[in-house]
Amino acid sequence: MKPLSIKDIAKKANVSITTVSFILNGKAEQMRISQEMIAKVQKIITDLGFRPNQVARSLRTGNSKTLGLIVEDISNPFFASIARLIEDKAYKHGYKIIYSSTENDIDKAKGLFKMFKSRQVDGYIIAPMPGMEEDIKSLIANKIPVVLFDRNLASLKTNCVLVNNVGGTYEATEYLIRKLKKKIAFVTVDIKVDQMKDRYKGYQKALQDYQFRVMKRLCIHIPFANTIEETNTQLIDFFTKNKDIDAVLFSTNYLAIRGLFCFREMGKKLDDQFQVVAYDDHDVFCLHSPPISVVDQPIEEIAENIIGLVLKDLAALDSMIQNDPPQMIVLSPKFIER
User: Does the domain at residues 165-296 carry the CATH identifier 3.40.50.2000?
Assistant: First the structure.
C-alpha cells in the first residue's frame, strides 16, 4: 500500500499542499490560517494516521528534530548516565539524540562534526577537547545552538554547563586529611582538559592549605589510551614503589575501579590504615566492602540544564528573536562519605 502523503491530506481537506505543510510545521498561526481550518486538517491527519517522513521534513524545513551529542567515551559510566538522561528529556520535547565518542582523538572528532552536519542535527551538546575550537566556532557563526558540558574551551563564547571540580577534590582531600592521612596519593588520567586539571588543582590546594607538601611521587597520570592491562600494571607498580601511601584519591570512577582490582590482586586491604575516595559515583562503590566514599556529580541537574539551554536557543531561532548572551552554569558536586 502506498504511504500517505501531504498531497493526500490536502485533497481530503480541500486545501492547498502549502496550507497542510504550514500546519504540520507549526506555522499555521504565523501564516494566519484559521483555527477552524487547523482543527479540520489535524483531525484528518489523526484519522488517517499520517506520519510525516522525517528526512523529507528536515530538507523542507531545515529542522531534523535531532540533537548531536559528542563525548569523550560513551561507555564511561558518567557520560552514559548523562546521555541517558539527555535522551529522555529531549524525547519529551520531540527531539531524538545521536551520540558518539571522540576517544580523545581530534581526527575522529572532526569526522563526527562532518557526520552530524550531513544529518542536519538542530543543535550540538559537546564535552569538548582542545582542537575542536574552529569546528565549534563555525557552528556558532552559523547560529546553530551549542552547549558545552563537563569541560570548557576558554576561547569559545557559548553556553556551558560545568561542575566545580576544584571544590570537589578539595573536599575529598580535606576529608582524608581530617582522617589523619599523611601520604595522600592522587591518580588521574593524562589528558589536557579543564576538568582533569581542576581536579588536580583541588587536591593540591587542600594539601597546601593544610600545610602538606605536594609530592610528585605521590601523583600518577595514567595515559588515556592505555589498555586495561597497561593501567593495571602501572597502578600496581605505583603502589608497590610507594608503600607509605595511606590514602588515595582517584580522579575518575573507572580509574578507581581499576585500582580496586589491583588492590585485590596485591592483597592490599582497605581499612582505617588505607582509604580510597573516587570522583564520580558507581554501583561498584556501594557494593564494595568496605564501601567507597565518593565525590558525586549532580548528573540530573547537569542534564536538565543542558537540555534547557539547547531548547531555549532552538526556540529563539524558531521565533527569530535574539538569543540571550551565553550562560556558564557551574554546579556543585556532593561528597558522600561511606
Answer: no
What is residue 63's predicted lDDT score, i.e. its pLDDT? Answer: 67
Take residue 142 and report the three cell numbers written for it: 552559523
Asked if residues 98 and 121 have their Cβ atoms less than 8 Å apart, the reply is yes
CATH class of 66-162+300-333: alpha beta
Amino acid in position 81: S
pLDDT digits (tens, 9 = 90+) for 146-178: 999 999 988 899 999 999 999 999 999 999 999
Tell me, yes or no, if the two domains 66-162+300-333 and 165-296 fold the same way. yes
- pLDDT in the model for residue 48: 77
What distances in angstroms separate CA 194 from CA 57, 95, 128, 232, one per listed residue? 39, 30, 10, 25
**Concatenated DSSP letters of 127-179:** ---TT-HHHHHHHHHTT--EEEESS--TT--SEEEEE-HHHHHHHHHHHHHHT
Q: Domain 6-52 carries which CATH code?
A: 1.10.260.40
In degrees and rounded to multiples of 5, residue 199 shows phi and psi of -65, -40
Backbone angles phi, psi at 332, to 5 degrees: -100, 130
Q: How far apart are CA 289 and CA 218, in angstroms?
A: 25
Q: Give the max Cα distance, the chain.
A: 84
Q: Concatenated DSSP letters for 209-223?
A: HTT----GGGEEEEE
What integer is the mean pLDDT of 306-335? 85
Phi-psi region of 29 (alpha: psi -120 to 50; beta: other; left: phi over 0): alpha
pLDDT of 57 strictly over 50: no
* Highest averaged pLDDT of the listed ranges 14-18, 34-38, 236-240: 236-240
For the question of whether the overall pTM of this predicted structure is more than 0.85, the answer is no
Q: For the chain, what are the domain ranges?
A: 6-52, 66-162+300-333, 165-296
For the stretch 254-301, pLDDT in tens is: 999 999 999 999 999 999 899 999 999 999 999 999 999 999 999 999
Polymer length in residues for the chain: 338
Transcribe 263-274 into DSSP letters: HHHHTPPPBTTB
